[in-house]
Every structure is written in structure tokens, then in C-alpha cells.
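Class, look over these C-alpha cells:
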Amino acid sequence: MDMAPQRAKAPRNSGARQRLTAQDWADAALTAMGEGGLAAVAVEPLAARLGTTKGSFYWHFTNRDALIEAALERWEEVGTEAVITEVAAEPDPGERLRRLLLRATSWSAADPRDVSLLATAAHPRVAAALARVTARRIGYLATLFAELGFPEDEAGHRGLLAYTAYLGHTQLGHAVPQSLPAGAARDRYLDGVIETLVRPLNGGDGSENERT
């Protein structure tokens, strides 16, 4: 459930080059991860992309692992925490859920970072970040279902179901994009997914889901 991809841009001149920050490097590394996995995170190609030299890298990081860790932290920040903060402004939990899924699936069609990181889950640093992000995202979804009146256990189950639906949509969007609806049909499809997710188990009016 990430935000729109942040692409690293090469500075226009040497003055801009001197102003590069650790975040600039982390963003460039995160973009590279989305394009080619961890193997794409290499200092010299990233320096070329940023229009700088390796000296800039070593000013901010001791080694490649430190850069990978910083990139993963940026992924958590922009792809999870910033999105949660943004949708939290909506007071209605049902509408918040809808906005969250619409934004997440729209982004995932354009950016492969989640897919790429899942494919490199064997890497210890990636595995740790995936565990944190997955727990945070499912936990937040569970709070939305709890606010909609589902008991705690059921809210957790539905949060997990919503997240697996997002991941499945993301995987299909990159592997077989033509299998997914587009435009207005996509919005109708996602509304149907949300309607299914919030439907009471017995098909009733939802009164049995009120918290006691």
C-alpha cells in the first residue's frame, strides 16, 4: 500500500550534487530495488543516476548494507506510515478503507516495489522490513474493521483477508495486467471487494457485529 513512486532525478549541476542527502541516496536505492531487486542497488550506477560520485555515498553511508537498510526504512515511511496518516483524515472507517484500497491498488499498478521486495524476502534485512510492514498494514486494516463493529478476532481475520486481496491484485497487476479491470470497471470491482469484506458472516444487517 504504497504511495506514488518517488523517482530519483539527477541533479542539474555540481552545486546540486553537493546538496545530496542520505535520503536522496535512499530514495534512489529504493527506486532501483523496484526496477531490479537488491542486485540493482550498486553504488556506482546509483551515483551515475544521481549525477554524483562514490564520494557522496561514503559521506553518508559506511557500506551497501547501510544503504539498503536506509532504503527499506524509506519504503516503510512513504509506503505505509505516510499513507496511513493521509487516509486517517477521513472520519468514516468504511470510506477510509475504500480510499486506502483504491490508492494502494492504483499505485501498485505503476510501481513494482512491493512485488520486488517480496521476491527478495530471503534477504535478512528485507525479511525484517517485510515483517514490520506486513504487521503494521494488517494491524491498521484490522482497526478499520473493528471500527466498523466487528469483534477483535473477526476484525483481524478480515484485515488479513483485505491485505491478501491487495497482494493478489498487485501480483496480477504486474504478471497478467490484462486480467484486471480498468477505469470505471476497476472502481466498481474494488467497491465489490470492499462490500464483500464488510458483509456480516450471516448476511444480516450488521447489528450482530456491534461490539459488546
